[in-house]
Request: fold
Amino acid sequence: MLQEEIHIPRKITNQLLHLAQQSPDQEVCGLISSKNGLPARCYPINNVAEQPGQRFQLDASQQIAAMASMRNQGEELFAIYHSHPTAPAQPSSADLELAAYPDALYLIISLNTKGILELRGFRIEHKTAREITLALSED
Reply:
């Protein structure tokens, strides 16, 4: 079976890394839309978790507004992203437990990789994560 590879535009990748760097003590989170199957736009959403340094919870009203904006733009949900300020870029047990969109890509940004930002992608279904190869694209 061929390994699935997903292309993420450099502009979106840079935006995600920048957002994570701006809030190094809290998990940043949000949605990424797609148009015609290609990642199109980043929708940063406030993290309203009780412990935002260790968990993320999308602000419900902002998530609803982002999903409505996607529909209005002819876009679909492509990915859900969040950062791990002090942990590797892999799903935590809470990430696996709370994943509710099996068709979405889950992107995790780690700030804890020896000074190098790390971005990894996963499909999470039935509380199991499968890593997806990410490739940068210039579009």
Strands lie at 5-9, 29-35, 38-45, 76-84, 105-110, 118-125, 128-137.
